[in-house]
Amino acid sequence: MKLSIERADLLKAVGQAQSVVERRNTIPILGNVLIEAEGNTASFRATDLDIEVVDRAPAMVERAGATTVPAVTLHEIVRKLPDGAMVQLSEDGVKGRLEVRAGKSTFSLATLPRDGFPVMASSEYASNFSAPAPMLRRLFDKAKFAISTEETRYYLNGVFMHVAEGEDGAVLRCVATDGHRLARIEAPLPDGAEGMPGVIVPRKTVGELRKLLDDDDMQIAVSVSDTKVRFATPNITLTSKVIDGTFPDYTRVIPVGNRRKLEVDASDFARAVDRVATVSSERSKAVKLTLEEDRLILAVNNPDSGAAEEELGVAYADERLEIGFNAKYLLEIASQVDRENAVFLFNSSGDPALMREGGDTSAIYVVMPMRV
Amino acid sequence: MPALCRDCFHVFDAGTRCPACRRPRVLSHPELFDLTIAHMDCDAFYASVEKRDDPSLADKPVIIGGGRRGVVSTACYVARIRGVKSAMPMFQALKLCPDAVVLKPRFEAYVAASKAIRAMMDELTPSVQPLSLDEAFLDLGGTARLHGAPPAVLLAKLVRRMQDELGLTGSIGLSHNKFLAKIASDLDKPRGFAVIGRAETMAFLAPKPVRLIWGVGPALTESLERAGIRTFTDLRRWERDDLVARFGGMGDRLWHLARGEDNRRVDAREPVKSISNETTFGEDTADPSLLDGHLWRMAEKTASRAKAQNKAGRVVTLKLKRHDHRILSRRVTLPQPTQLADTLYRTARGLLDHVTDPGPFRLLGVGLSDITEATGADRMDDLLDPEAARRSAAERAADAIRARFGPDAIVKGRALR
């Protein structure tokens, strides 16, 4: 195999590959990226056995072929090469080395034969549809902060993507929760997605997917089966197993009877929460919210480290309410709001609160209070 | 050389017999009255309490331990002569010493004795750091003027007082740091008093095996041996950086200890690091329902200790010992600290469900670590488990009932399995 490729194209492709491979591998070849050259394309494939990513980039192929080299090392090399360089990759099959040349630099990397490289079995997808990148970006970006890291509840370690009945008909919905907060984000159902099985997209896949979604004009081809999900652009294909488990019935968690409505400027609110939380030395910083007519008092009182209080002008017309929250959770949901005021709906100090942006119900957040 | 009579506390200048009372229990050491860090270790504590409370046991070998399947927790000196050691499996101990009187531990009696000893130590210095019921570090620095006597004299009086008032004996190690004081208390047991001075520290340690170091267990001993380190002399040949590179944080500590250096303070308020309970079964079992019963009981015990100490923990550990004594341990970090048996049980249960080893097991334990104050614990309920709030309210109610009517006033059916 011998090919030449632009440094920028190579960096992008290898960058994605090295973030998929596991840092600590007992099986050496899983740390490698499979490079295949044919026609005028070089493709770079990496896997951790749960996720597989293939990046294709234009290249001048002198000699077709394929080999594998350590993904992290190749990425480090390419990253340190000067911008605009032309990189030549040539394989010496006898010595078992891949030579990387750019300008006056030469590197020689140990290779492993491609036969040992695991390729994810192709499967039948029950549903294929296409969705614009900004839509998927919103669905996953706004949900991912609520993904659980708790291993015993592994079925919460991802985003539940499924078809649901929204207020105005069928929607594509993403839900994530860790038991303390929940995010439910929806978008109009793309054509062809009607029969899509609900799947739990793992946290790592959500992170990798994000890299496909930066281009606003891109249409993403989405394929879903009971066990796998695939996201593809013309150059990148990301295939992932989904979490084998049942996502809990989240609908009963979302409060419907919360009547006490607070409207507040989200960024003022977030900054105030952040300020008062400074004095708390606890790991889970508790903030007490006291709501009175058009007045919100945020207070932190920590016997060991100090106290803080701040008042905010808000729209609130219900009876007085005191309710505590983990400051971090409040900051996270407040940071999801980008256009209008944050609207909080409370019931009592012991019940979960609901937050949305203005009157928009296509993105709602539920957060559990904390006893303070 | 300064000398002290351990019987009449007469202080004099060298000699093998006390010039005042003519008795031979004389302690002499060049640094005797300059050293201030002590370790007091009761002699065969549990067994001594039993012998004190039942004089008919006085000349019999006594072993304290739990059940046929348990291990020896303490053996009296009569039993020790026959080769019985702490932590030895009971069947083995009984093979060595078939006529031993095996007693179940009576913790209330030991706790009471321990408290009495603690009170005596507290009279000497505010810096008392108990390590367990029967041993403690004391820092007697700066107390000589207050008591009108140097630490060595105070310590000799302390053990005498323990013997006279409580009928219990202890051994003292006196040195210039905790590490050496603890080693010293073991040198002259029982009823011992050993001194390790600054001048002799290096020479004293040189030929000693490194497993003498508290924290160097069988596993570390083995990896030290693989590195060619058996004695303190071997250890001293290593550069500090090499030890750190090979053994991490422990490496740095080893480098200092090799030179007899230990700057840990005697801390009266040593924070609790973990709370755990474990049980060895009467018979090895793989029965899920039996394991579940044990799991609940251990979770409940651990939780009730956490509640008693007003502590909570964020890390839950499940420990299992297989029939071949191999230990499996699984841990998980909770989003918030807990002290509730229900949370502890459910979390440990999740860990147990993920154990692929089919058993049988001989021991199960549940532990709580990453300990914090209870004020920050269990303050948030679970969205996905709305019953959890009710279960924790039920647990708090049951706790209140137990506090009023005794520990057995109310138990869960699960605890009876």
CATH architecture of the largest domain in chain A, by name, is Roll
The CATH homologous superfamily of the largest domain in chain A is termed DNA Polymerase III, subunit A, domain 2
Count of separate structural domains of chain A: 3
Q: Quote the beta fraction of chain A.
A: 35-45%
Provide the CATH superfamily of the largest domain in chain B: Reverse transcriptase/Diguanylate cyclase domain
Looking at how many chains there are and whether they match, the oligomeric state comes to heterodimer
Classification by helices and strands of chain A: alpha+beta
Secondary-structure-based class of chain B equals: alpha+beta
Instruction: Characterize the overall form of chain A.
Output: elongated
Q: Quickly count the domains of chain B.
A: 3
CATH topology of the largest domain in chain B: Alpha-Beta Plaits
**Order of strands, widest sheet of chain A:** 14-11-12-13-26-25-24-18-22
Order of helices and strands of chain B: EEEEHEEHHEHEEHHEHEHHHHHEHEEHEH
Which features does this protein show?
heterodimer; A: 372 residues; alpha+beta; DNA Polymerase III, Chain A, domain 2; 3 domains; nine-stranded antiparallel β-sheet; eight-stranded antiparallel β-sheet; 26 strands; elongated; B: 417 residues; Alpha-Beta Plaits; DNA polymerase, domain 1; Dna Ligase, domain 1; five-stranded mixed β-sheet; four-stranded antiparallel β-sheet; 15 helices
Structure write-up:
- Chain A is α+β, with helices and mostly antiparallel strands and about 375 residues long.
- In chain A, strand 11 and strand 12 form a beta hairpin.
- In chain A, helix 1 runs antiparallel to helix 2 and helix 5 runs antiparallel to helix 6.
- Chain A is elongated, with a radius of gyration of 25 Å.
- Chain B has about 425 residues and is an alpha+beta fold.
- Chain B folds into three domains: about 170 residues, Reverse transcriptase/Diguanylate cyclase domain (Alpha-Beta Plaits, 2-Layer Sandwich), CATH 3.30.70.270; about 50 residues, 5' to 3' exonuclease, C-terminal subdomain (DNA polymerase, domain 1, Orthogonal Bundle); about 140 residues, Dna Ligase, domain 1.
- Helices cover about 35% and strands about 25% of the residues of chain B.
- Chain B contains 15 helices and 15 strands.
- Chain B has a five-stranded mixed sheet with strand order 8-9-4-10-11. Chain B has a four-stranded antiparallel sheet with strand order 12-15-13-14. In chain B, strands 2-1-3 form a three-stranded antiparallel sheet, with no helix packed on it.
- The termini of chain B are far apart.
- The mean pLDDT of chain B is about 90.
- The chains are: A alpha+beta (about 375), B alpha+beta (about 425).
- The interface between A and B is medium-sized, with 28 and 18 residues.
